[in-house]
Amino acid sequence: MTDEPARWSQATVYPDMWVDPDSDPRNSDGVSPDGELATLQDFLTGYRLTLRMKCEGLDPEQLARRSVPPSTMSLLGLIRHLAEVERDWQNWITDGEPLPQLYGGPDGDFDGAVAEQAVVDAAYADLEREQAATDAALAEHPDLSERLGKDGFAVRELLVHRIEEYARHCGHADLLRECVDGRVGQ
């Protein structure tokens, strides 16, 4: 007997996929977006959807389940972390006073990721709110070369960094989900 879940995929067309292509909300009909800004936004949207898909169908205990000690990483912690990161990017855009952290000091995003439905619901609400706020702030600056905030980051750099952050954490989510219930796929 082992505590390790058997590997499985919901996909039937390609066994290395998360879902079949016709059921994948990340797939769009037609050609890819025109222009650099639209392309960057499309990649960001895809990674955001991937993170949500990796968390779908799990209960609070599964979402809060930690990876390998001493790591505090969990799927719920990733949701909270990305909400915190989105808020921090808003601080990069502004010249004003920084917004306070959502979850307190270092590792508050992961340490506070406990197996309670209210914490899960709040994490998803925080993520949606902070994504919308960052998106709205950046929408006011469609010129990718424009420099923003006290440190003068280019809009392009902020968008690419957001994509990188989500992509990296989607890789973590792949492994975390596989540890929870054995489900695999890109």
Which keywords apply here?
186 residues, mainly alpha, 6 helices, 2 strands, flat
Please count the helical segments: 6
User: Number of domains in the coordinates?
Assistant: 1
Cα shape: flat
How far apart, in Å, are the first and last alpha carbons? Answer: 28 Å
Number of strands: 2
Question: What is the SS-derived class?
Answer: mainly alpha
What is the residue-mean pLDDT, rounded to a whole number? Answer: 93
Strand order of the largest sheet: 1-2
* Share of β-strand residues: under 5%
CATH superfamily: dinb family like domain
| Regions with little confidence, pLDDT below 50 for 5+ residues | none
CATH names the topology as: Four Helix Bundle (Hemerythrin (Met), subunit A)
Q: In this structure, how is the largest beta sheet organized?
A: 2 strands, antiparallel
Write the element-wise H/E pattern from the N-terminal end onward: HHHHHEEH
DSSP helix fraction = 40-55%
Based on the coordinates given, report the CATH architecture.
Up-down Bundle
Q: Rg to the nearest angstrom?
A: 18 Å
Provide the CATH top-level class. Answer: Mainly Alpha
Summarize the structure.
The protein is an all-alpha fold and 186 residues long. The chain has helices at 36-55, 60-64, 75-93, 108-111, 117-139, 155-181, and strands spanning 147-148, 153-154.
